[in-house]
Amino acid sequence: MYLNCHSYHSLRYGTMSIKTLVKQAKACGVTALALTDINTVTGIYDFIRACEKKQIKPLVGMEFREGNKLLYIALAKTSTGIGEMCNLLTAHNIAGTPIPVQAPPFTEVITIYPLDNAPDSLPPDAYIGVRPDELTQLIQLRWRHRINNMVILQPVVFESKETYNLHRILRAVDLNIILSKLTSQDTCRETDSMVPPHTLLSYYRHYPQLITNTKQVVDSCNFTFDFHAPKNKKHFTHSRDEDLKLLTTLAYRGLAKRYPPEHREAMDRVERELKVVHQLSFSAYFLITWDIVQYSNSMGFMHIGRGSGANSIIAYCLGITDICPLELDLYFERFLNLNRKTPPDFDIDWSWQDRDTILHYIFNKYGRDHVAFCGTNVTFKYRSIFRELGKVFGLPKAELDSLATMPIEQHDSNSIVATIHRYGKMLEKFPNQRSMHACGILISEEPITHYSVLEMPPKGFPIVQFDMHIAEEIELHKFDILSQRGIGHINDAVQLIQQNRGITVDIRNTSLSKDETLCNDYLRKGHTIGCFYIESPAMRGLLRRLQCDNYKILVAASSIIRPGVAQSGMMKEYIFRHNNPTGFTYFHDVFREQLHETYGIMVYQEDVIKIALHFGGLAAADGDILRRAMSGKGRSLSALQQVKDNFFASCRKLGHDENLSAEVYRQIESFAGYSFCKAHSASYAVESYQSLFLKVYYPLEFMVAVINNLGGFYRTEVYVHETKKSGAEVFPPCANKSIYETTLYGKTVYLGFMHIQSLPKKTALLIEHERKQHGAYRSLEDFIRRIPIGIEAVQILIYIGAFRFTGKNKNELLVTARMLLVNFKPENRALMLLQEPAKEYKLPELERLPHEDAFDEIELLGFPVSCSPFDLLQTKYRGEVLVQDLLKHHKKQVKMLAYLIARKHVPTKLGTMYFGTWIDVHGDYFDTAHFPDSLQAYPFQGGGCYLLLGTVEVDCHFPTITIHKMAKMPFIPDPRYNHEKNHQYRVHQQIKEDVSMTHRAPYPQAHEIGLPRQAMPQT
Fold first, then answer.
1. What pLDDT, on the 0 to 100 scale, is given for residue 404?
2. Residue 13: which pLDDT band, with cuts at 50, 70 and 90?
3. Among residues 710, 707, 735, which one has the least CA distance to residue 721?
4. E-assigned strand segments in 295-370
5. 103, 487, 887, 1011: which has the fewest Cβ within 10 Å?
6. Polymerase/histidinol phosphatase N-terminal domain: from which residue to which, for each copy (predicted)?
7. Are the C-beta atoms of residues 801 and 810 closer than 8 Å to each other?
8. Are 187 and 166 spatial neighbours (Cβ–Cβ below 8 Å)?
9. DSSP 970
10. Contacts 24+ apart (CB under 8 A), 325-331
């Protein structure tokens, strides 16, 4: 009887999850139920599964609305019906076609109109829905003769008075108004909830025809869905066999390029993988990915194939990945095996500059009717909940900011805040809006609107309305097309090397860097600023602790730094065992057999699965559940609990000691959602090495590329500093040398106009374009004549030093510019500037004080270029110890003067602590630890130079200073404001620092880990 039910997928309208809605229906004795969310089919697949579990007949459809106005409700008679609805709404979302007030002529859809939108005549399969409170209107002559076309309409939006209030709050959030401004047209009716069917039928007892019609509608709707049939594009060629033939040809062609002739191990591996791929019908998946990569290669783009796909030698031979699985003993079954319930996906990265070109190719090649991005539900989060609800209840902005930023314990305890807390808790995990998955592309065999409405977000690529989890459940699996700046660093560096040195670097030759002694020396010392994934303070510290000087150790390092491994204490233990290989024994033979390469420590997802299967005796299916959980793809807590139960039951059967089993499962559990598979780590390591190779041998080109790709872990200033350390002379932007991006001339670097704050991009590009068209600018006057620019923009360029080539100082240039432009109107440019040269004025000598340029640079760029921050200090003191001497001062107290680069917030049981990263006066990096008691007395005070007092702790070759005291050291007053004392320290506030926050649980200390270093007893 319930033909119009809403879940919370009716965004900011419905108040129930799918599970809650179906559970309530079961409790009420409902035997058939329709889900008709507003302008979406997001929830229908979860709904069907939920109804099947409760033995309820599911009806699926959609409620079509234009704003607040209900136009009609559509129910699918068959699967074709969903496609018809999706096509109608997709046309509205993509092309802007208005939703028709009356439904188009559907063929497999039943349409139900509300009374206030009922057309004068109804086509077949169309009805008028009558609510219980509208029954009295049926005595009117206009409705009496239409009773044969009417059905029961009892909308379901909420389940209780409290959730009705939640509905009203959601409507106010949606309309961005306070609660008291809501009207009856904005919300559902107070009767829009579920009652037992017999109660509902009693309302219509005098109108048996409506009851009969409603039952007929229920009987007519027989939407079925095959959750097991693959929905992706079936074939790359014309048939499954042709796909295999082409894949085999390509695989063996690639084999001949990648391996020496008659490499038996590689040939056997290719043959074995081809059999599995064909048996599981994944040839098309490989070929489509290969096709995308081939197009990328033809465009000269660089890509990185990573993730579990790198376990496949076929992927390696096809050029999808650059990881040889034989080199690292990567087993194919982690990627694809006959027990795996879901197909794999390839993760492929492109430069952020190239990704859109790749996406356009995919959409055009495989058809816009068959390609879409995966969607994702953006849920109400802590900050948004309190901010949105605060606005609904009319709180002022200051209170909203307080609610959104302060911990709940510190909120006021008044009744309004208590109400916000109560409804905020109900809103947690409610979808708030639909968005685009960061990288997941769906390519379907049937038009994709068979399964979903498409929406068009600002990015310009259509998205389906469901997320990746639903996509997987309906067997529509994604291709991950990602972007990252690290590839942009590599791409641009290679191009700069060609331009600046005339050298062609084949960076795709992954053997270039792995065996380079100098690269490995940089790696061991942590000299990796700018290099993908290995430049953060934590990673550089780990490289030094491990004395990492080869590819395999780097692969391990890429994984052990992940939160799962670190959180379990296994990162600390790995570091110990790596540095003390005779200081432990394996605590069980299985760990020696399976994990000897990593000293008996679980480092990769594969290690977890190996231990689960070989130590715990779990079935392969349980191993796959663990794999999905570790990949962040598992949604079922009950499935994970079942794996845990199976693990302990199996361990008891195998006779394992209970304490040993508990410790092993503790380690397994810590990996969920936060670890890499070995192939993923290997892919990251290859890219890291590629970056490092360029940094070692072509440092200027590499650092300029990093700057132009807007850096990585650090701010631009750090990469400019690193460029200077690499031997470059760096200058601020110049009108005759700079372009929008930073440029390199031999060993001279000119920062790009893009770094000047407040300079419009349009002006910056015009300066470059005009210079290319008509030659260098001869003077400030010539520049003003050729570039339509106002006095404000000219002054910015003068202050940054863009006219140094004129030989005049900034003060002279400023006076000249004002004389030329102060009364100038753009329409008179030709009359004033082209008829005759500007008059030369005899100006008095206008002196510049030392360091004025540095303060101009701080104001416009955010950091000084013409000098070091240390040059701006009032003190000449530079500390007692330099970074190069820290290893000699273990357990000794030192005093250092340093410039703050970055600090990272880390929670501990005793309160907040920070890890700091600094440079000394020689420009070398070092790290500090600041514990809560020290921070309370000596807190950070923003960017700048500090005097530090602390004790050096050398941990496995890596020194850290535990800070006891610190004080921010004053810079000199801004010399530009010698006569305006209140402005002399204003620009100092623009000195920056990089601050990163983490809210993870504290990493355990060595004594808290309890990870055994000896064999454990067996029962």
1. 78
2. very high
3. 707
4. 303-306, 347-351
5. 887
6. 1-68
7. yes
8. no
9. P
10. 325/269, 325/679, 326/265, 326/266, 326/269, 328/552, 328/555, 328/678, 328/679, 328/682, 329/597, 330/678, 330/679, 330/682, 331/606
Which residues in 825-892 belong to E strands, given as ranges?
none
Q: Which residue has the tokens 């559902």?
A: 188
Where do we find the tokens 């092309």?
95
Task: Report residue 842's pLDDT band, with 50, 70 and 90 as the boundaries.
Answer: low
Q: Calculate helix-pair angle for 283-298, 240-258, nearest 10 degrees.
A: 50
**pTM for the complete prediction?**
0.85
* Residue 338: CA count within 13 A, CB half-sphere: 7
* Cα 239 to chain centroid, rounded: 37
Measured from the Cβ of residue 987, the count of other Cβ atoms closer than 10 Å reads 19
CA dist 372 and 456 (Å) reads 10
* Spatial separation of the C-alpha atoms in residues 42 and 8, rounded to whole Å: 10
User: Which numeric CATH code is attached to 874-997?
Assistant: 2.40.50.140
Question: Going by DSSP bridges, is the β-strand pair 32-35/2-5 parallel, antiparallel, or unpaired?
Answer: parallel
| pLDDT 10s digits, 619-659 | 877 777 777 777 665 555 667 788 889 999 999 999 998 88
Positive or negative, the CA dihedral 96, 102, 106, 110 is positive
> 438: which 2 tokens?
């960061």
Task: State how far the Cα of 464 lies from the Cα of 480, in Å rounded to an integer.
Answer: 15
Long-range contacts of 190-193 (CB under 8 A, 24+ apart): 190/164, 191/131, 191/132, 191/133, 192/154, 192/155, 192/156, 192/157, 192/158, 193/156, 193/157, 193/158, 193/159, 193/160, 193/164
Q: What is the DSSP code (8-state) at residue 228?
A: S
Q: Which amino acid is at 941?
A: Q
Q: State the chain's mean pLDDT as an integer.
A: 90
Which structure tokens are listed for 780? 């400030």
CA 960 to chain centre: 31
pLDDT in tens, 872-892: 999 999 999 999 999 999 999
Candidates 467, 463, 445; CA nearest to 454 is 463
d(CA 277, CA 89): 38
CA distance 529 to 476: 40
Amino acid sitting at position 668: I
Q: H or E segment at 43?
A: none
Q: Name the strands in the sheet holding 303-306, side by side, starting at the edge strand that comes first in the sequence.
A: 303-306, 347-351, 478-484, 431-443, 371-379, 463-464, 454-455
The helix/strand/coil state of 3 is strand
CA distance 556 to 568: 16
DSSP 3-state of 748: strand
The one-character DSSP state at 193 is: B
pLDDT of 405 over the 80 cut: no
Structure token pair of residue 315? 């992927």
| CA–CA distance, 351 with 482 (Å, rounded to integer) | 8
C-alpha distances (whole Å) from 996 to each of 213, 899, 900, 942, 965 are 62, 17, 13, 13, 22
Question: How far is C-alpha 251 from the chain's CA centre?
Answer: 33
% the chain with pLDDT above 70? 93
User: 127 near 113, Cβ under 8 Å?
Assistant: yes
Torsions phi, psi for 106 (to 5 deg): -70, 160
Residue in the structure block whose two tokens are 């794996």 = 643
Phi, psi of 237 (to 5 degrees): -95, -120
Q: Are the CB atoms for 442 and 476 separated by under 8 Å?
A: yes
Predicted confidence (pLDDT) at residue 767 exceeds the cutoff of 50: yes
Place of tokens 């309305």: 465
Q: Which of 20, 5, 17 is nearest to 60 (CA)?
A: 5
Give me the count of residues in the chain. 1019
- The domains of the chain are located at 18-220, 240-366, 371-476, 510-686, 729-861, 874-997
Which range has the top average pLDDT, 816-830, 864-878, 982-996?
864-878
Q: Of residues 307 and 466, which shows the higher confidence score?
A: 466
First to last CA, the chain: 61
